[in-house]
């Protein structure tokens, strides 16, 4: 059995957990953002669906689901922040508020 490749996830409530991703370097290099989101939902059952979940690594949002993690510079034992995508964003003009 080979080395176990993991990442650390800082969850929505500040809880940090280590998530096991795969057993080989080849699998780790081909792991996508979408596959990581699936692993996060398995580890944190109360996590919302794919649309409501945002991942941040070194101040960069992992916004392309089919992009490999290695293209973002994610390595074994990297820390990834999980944040929720909130609805809204409508800009109100001063005339609408008054």
TrEMBL record:
This is Ubiquitin-like domain-containing protein. Residues 30-89 form the Ubiquitin-like domain. It comes from the Eukaryota. Pfam families: ubiquitin.
